[in-house]
UniProtKB/TrEMBL annotation:
Binds 1 Mg(2+) ion per subunit. 3-methyl-2-oxobutanoate binds at residues 52-53, 91, 121. Its main location: cytoplasm. Belongs to the PanB family. Catalyzes the reversible reaction in which hydroxymethyl group from 5,10-methylenetetrahydrofolate is transferred onto alpha-ketoisovalerate to form ketopantoate. This is 3-methyl-2-oxobutanoate hydroxymethyltransferase. GO terms for molecular function: 3-methyl-2-oxobutanoate hydroxymethyltransferase activity. It comes from Chitinophaga chungangae. Mg(2+) binds at residues 52, 91, 123. Pathway: Cofactor biosynthesis; (R)-pantothenate biosynthesis; (R)-pantoate from 3-methyl-2-oxobutanoate: step 1/2. Keywords: Cytoplasm, Magnesium, Metal-binding, Pantothenate biosynthesis, Transferase. The active site is at residue 190. Homodecamer; pentamer of dimers. Its EC number is 2.1.2.11.
Length: 272
């Protein structure tokens, strides 16, 4: 852990900007509940994202579209209660901002007031710029999200790599610059070619955080359930599994079942 990381009590947008300037990589993971968020925060993670991926990993939906603003607020408030130093960002869920900057602001204000989070994340470029400006003018930090934007999955029709052709790559770079000009404090790039992500990170002064966007960006984010191996089905090229918790929990549960059925648990020492 570097010097910047050790000396700070709480991560802020100012600290994240300094990390980019100093060339220190930013670490980011998703979190959805108190117990896990406390572990990740204690471990020293820089940013915790309360992702609308809760729709998938917590609620079992096929896409991120069904999760509601109320549900995002429930997850976010649980996470915020756990943290001491991480910067907590909350996804604006599908339907809480699209096509209406006033609704985007009111959704954001609810998140900030009811959860105590530190900022929000919004998917899209030029089409959401008015919302981004309005939210920032209210004093709320905004993180952008370009490339594969899962809330638009039915428009794309696929979770494949984005911006592989020149036109889409040019739009992505232009959108990134628009978000920076509008005042976004950082941008997530999802599933785009590494060299395009490198260009974006070099041409922008704000931090660029990648997921499946290669090694040349300013930080990385993964979904906690994927990184810890709680999910078995999801195996994209960009995912590094640091644990295989599915198997560990499965075995522990089987052992518990065996111990209960064989009357091995509880023992004399485990009763009053």
């Amino acid at each position: 852990m570097s010097a910047v990381n050790k000396e700070i009590k709480r991560i802020t947008t100012h600290i994240l900007q300094k990390m980019k300037t100093d060339g220190e990589r930013i670490s980011m993971l998703t979190a959805y509940d108190f117990s896990m968020a406390r572990i990740l925060d204690d471990a020293g993670i820089d940013i915790l994202l309360v992702g609308d991926s809760a729709s998938n990993v917590m609620a079992g939906h096929e896409t991120t579209l069904p999760i509601t603003l109320d549900q995002m607020i429930y997850h976010a408030s649980s996470v915020v209660r756990a943290i001491k130093r991480s910067f907590v960002v909350v996804d604006l869920p599908f339907g809480s901002y699209q096509g209406n900057s006033k609704e985007a602001l009111s959704s954001t204000i609810r998140i900030m007031k009811e959860t105590g989070a530190h900022g929000i994340k919004i998917e899209g470029g030029e089409e959401v710029i008015e919302s981004v400006k309005r939210i920032i003018s209210a004093g709320v930090p905004v993180m952008g999200h370009l490339g594969l934007t899962p809330q638009s999955i039915y428009k794309f029709g696929t979770y494949a790599v984005r911006a592989t052709d020149d036109a889409e790559a040019a739009k992505l770079l232009a959108d990134a610059k628009l978000l920076q000009e509008a005042g976004a404090f950082a941008i997530v790039l999802e599933k785009i070619p590494a060299l395009l992500a490198k260009q974006v990170a070099e041409e922008l002064t704000i931090p660029v955080i990648g997921i499946g966007a290669g090694k040349y960006v300013d930080g990385q984010v993964l979904v906690m359930h994927d990184m810890l191996g709680i999910n078995k089905e999801f195996k994209p090229r960009f995912l590094r599994r640091y644990l295989n918790l599915y198997d560990d929990i499965y075995k522990a549960t089987q052992q518990y079942i065996h111990d209960v059925k064989s009357r091995d648990f509880p023992t004399d020492q485990e009763q009053y």
